[in-house]
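Known limitations

Structure tokens in this collection are predictions and should be treated as such. Users comparing against experimental data should check residue numbering before alignment. To illustrate the layout, the record for DUF4251 domain-containing protein is reproduced below. The input appears on top and the generated tokens appear beneath it.
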Amino acid sequence: MKKILFTVLATLGINIGAKSQTERLDSGLKNILKITADRFENNNHAFLINLAKDNVVTVQIVHGALIEQISTPTNEFNFSINLPFDNEQEELTKFKELKISDEFKYYEFDGIPCYVMNFGNDQKLTYEIVLDVLREVYHFEKSDIFEFEIFDQGPIRR
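Generated tokens:
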């Protein structure tokens, strides 16, 4: 199971609250991005969104301040996609074949290859890239049922 970033944050006792919903991938993703922006953008709270299929987290959308490789000095609100490829060589190969993959930053977490990209507060672009990755790399469809979890990680300290 790929709850890498969530596991790290929970271990540190940072997890403040959670909201979970189960929906079709396309509508659920749009809803969760809107809910996150409405709830956290004005106060610049850090957040973590898990997109899970069959109890396995496939993609994480996070506030970029939570990942050193894409954090900025001001750490303004943003949507960043975090893709850990834990024991998923076939999926990693498919991801690297995507045109957009070159724009992601590579890092390792406990030896696990991960890719991350910051999309600012652009919900539409975040939605499109997440859908593209889930369709092209994992062969999911827009109509597949996913679980969406939002975790409030508290205000960003500057």
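For this record: The chain has one domain: 4-12+20-155. Helices lie at 4-11, 25-40, 89-97, 123-136. Please report discrepancies through the issue tracker.
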